[in-house]
Design brief:
Radius of gyration: 18 Å
Order of helices and strands: EEHEEEHEEEEEEHEEEHEEEE
Mean pLDDT: 95
Strand content: 35-45%
Helix content: 10-25%
Structural class: alpha+beta
Low-confidence stretches: none
Number of helices: 4
Number of strands: 18
Shape: globular
């Protein structure tokens, strides 16, 4: 099986063309290939699939083998991959995902992809659809490790909650302790992605994400989108923000729909026996 390793600002993925159905059990393949130090290592496995609804289909499997509905950094990598491989040879195209049809637009310079803007769709604030056990998902309290924490939650293709860090950075200890506890908190029936956020100014935020099914990640595209949406709803930031992540920044704009612009980068290509 041919694979390509890519990353979007440090959020890394193994990408494989599965239009011929070569990968019979992608959940198990993801678990085997994504294990760091013992295999290729990645936050997730992305497969390229045929679609009857869009130009192409993306499926993404977390490192623990669970399938995610969408991934912001993943779809930028996916879009660059299918364009460069001539699977889809258009600057603007449609991608079927479990979260709906996404619409990436490539930023090209002399025929090469320099960045990708993705129409990420509309956020959802319905407690039932997210899902979250809260009367008001925009601001609610959860009990974690014996204390109350204020959370802000929405569905941005996948469920995301935002924890605002006031006046300080989240320490590694806080992050690693609180992340998995919030992810699996009883308030979230299908678990949740957790974004620890520091507001720098009205147009700039810093985000660190504990990803559902993957753990700590260097960047999260849907998390960045959810962060700007939720903070804008709370009148804490403007609709257009720079989101600072470990390895760079994403530009997010919220105007009913959410638009994410950022880079993707190749790491290596290779061959493996797992399928």
């Amino acid at each position: 099986m041919k694979i390509t390793k890519m990353h979007g600002l440090g959020n890394d993925f193994i990408i494989a063309d599965n239009r011929n159905g070569e990968i019979k059990n992608p959940n198990e393949t993801a678990k085997k290939l994504c294990e760091r130090r013992l295999s290729v290592g990645a936050d997730g496995l992305i497969t390229v699939e045929n679609s009857s609804k869009a130009d192409i289909m993306m499926r993404i499997y977390n490192a623990d083998g669970s399938e995610a509905e969408m991934c912001g950094n993943g779809i930028r990598c996916f879009s660059m991959y299918v364009y460069d491989k001539c699977i889809v040879k258009k600057k603007s195209f449609t991608v079927e995902t479990l979260a709906g049809i996404m619409k990436p637009v490539l930023v090209l310079k002399e025929g090469k992809v320099e960045g990708i803007t993705v129409d990420m769709g509309e956020p959802c604030f319905s407690a039932k659809d997210i899902p979250v056990n809260a009367e008001n998902p925009l601001t609610h309290e959860i009990s974690v490790m014996g204390k109350k924490i204020t959370a802000h939650t929405c569905l941005m293709g996948v469920p995301h909650t935002v924890i605002i860090v006031d006046g300080k950075n989240v320490t590694d200890e806080d992050f690693s302790a609180l992340g998995p506890q919030i992810e699996k908190n009883e308030a979230y029936p299908k678990k949740v992605n957790v974004n620890f956020v520091k507001i720098i100014d009205k147009n700039t935020v810093s985000v660190r994400t504990w990803e559902r099914g993957a753990g700590p990640t260097l960047a999260c595209g849907t998390g960045s989108c959810a962060t700007v949406v939720l903070l804008n709803k709370l009148n804490l930031v403007e609709p257009k923000c720079e989101v600072k992540l470990y390895a760079g920044s994403l530009n997010i704009e919220y105007k009913d729909r959410v638009y994410m612009t950022g880079p993707a980068q190749y790491v290596f290509t290779g061959q493996c026996d797992e399928a």
